[in-house]
Amino acid sequence: MISAVLVQLSEIGITSGYGLVVFFLIGLLGGAHCIGMCGPLVATYAERLETDDRWSGALTLYEVRQHTLFNLGRTMSYALIGAVFGTAGALLYGTIGLAGILGPVQGVVGICIGVAILGMGVTRVAGYQQGAVEGVIADTGIGSVFARTYTVISTRIDRWVNGIGIVGLGALHGLLPCMLLYPAFLYAFAQGSPVHGLLSLAALGLGTIPSVFLYGTVIQTVSARQRQVVHYGLGVLFIGLGYVLLAMGLMRFGVMLPLPDIPYYQPIADSGAVA
């Protein structure tokens, strides 16, 4: 297992810089989405931060620290969940590899997840209404889990907002339904690498920090029109990610689609290093 992780780290250092940049851009563009979906939570805890009256109306170092800790908590949560999805994919590929049918299964996974991410991208380009998919999920059985998570967050704001516990608020934030994160988690699963999943989602989380940080400190509104424009950019990026997965999946069955001449990550199972 240790040797597998070392191989993944070496491969990521050489071949995955492009992918991490893409995930960072998704996060950077997705900041407007985060504000639209999670702005009320950020505004709520920002209002409850204890401030010195002598600094009324001014941003204090204490507030900067608390907002930074919140966003670091979010990023760590995204990264850990990405690692979990990557681990799940690695376990699947490792198990299937023992049965001698690794290639076809990787192909099917790549095709299915590629089509799913493509669909998410197309809906954004076609005029995605923010919160629509999250609302559908909230109406399912899974939605009760998210509802309980939001309740946990809201009941802990007063206790955690003014101390190191605000990191926990940010971490719980990663468990809420988000159409920005779903494609990224699926991509991490399809890649089948816990290390790549962790780094990719960490890059995405870091990309969201500027917008969410500014919203919590100096900006309180982002127009619906601005968010809609950003959704088009996100849609294009998701279409690109989905197409790469789809092409790689079809490649397992001998169907060759044109791919950009860029380095991309190959699942670690291909190297035979899964142990």
TrEMBL record:
Q: Which UniProt keywords apply?
A: Membrane, Transmembrane, Transmembrane helix
Q: What InterPro entries does UniProt report for this protein, alphabetically?
A: UreH-like_TM_dom (IPR039447)
- State the source organism's domain of life: Archaea
Keyword Transmembrane helix recorded: yes
Transmembrane residue ranges? 20-46, 78-102, 108-127, 164-189, 195-217, 229-251
Q: Which residues form the Urease accessory protein UreH-like transmembrane domain?
A: 23-243
Q: What is this protein called?
A: Urease accessory protein UreH-like transmembrane domain-containing protein
Record organism: Halorientalis persicus
